[in-house]
Input
Amino acid sequence: MSILERPLRGAVRTGVGGLTVDDVAVGDGGHLKRIVYPPGWRWSTHMQPVTGGERCMHAHVGMLVQGRIEIEYADGCREAFDAPAAVVVVPGHDGWVVGDEPAVLVQYDCGADTVERLRLPSSHRHD
Ligand SMILES: [Zn+2]
Output
């Protein structure tokens, strides 16, 4: 495993839907997370059975530091990220790992309040 996947001191580690999440609480309701997505992982295959819903309704703001991911919104718009890459993804997407390398995303979020507190669009749209 790469250094970017090693256990993170001071973090709370959880595994959900095939992901490994190391979470450090920050300030009032903030979370600094290191999320490892294994090769072959796909939200609609591995996470949808856990969370339900049509798509991932989380916003993701962070830095992809290893690997490649691709996301797709309901209208078919796709966006690919190839590390190193800044990642801003709004609610309402499917997403998957591209290639044979685990993808590692370092993300800041505020749980259910992420969209509001980071002043993000609540959904994908074309202005
Ligand atoms: Zn679109």
Notes: The chain has a mean pLDDT of 96. Residues 1-58+99-112 form one domain. The longest strand covers residues 19-26. The beta strands are 12-16, 19-26, 30-37, 60-66, 68-73, 78-82, 85-89, 93-98, 103-109.
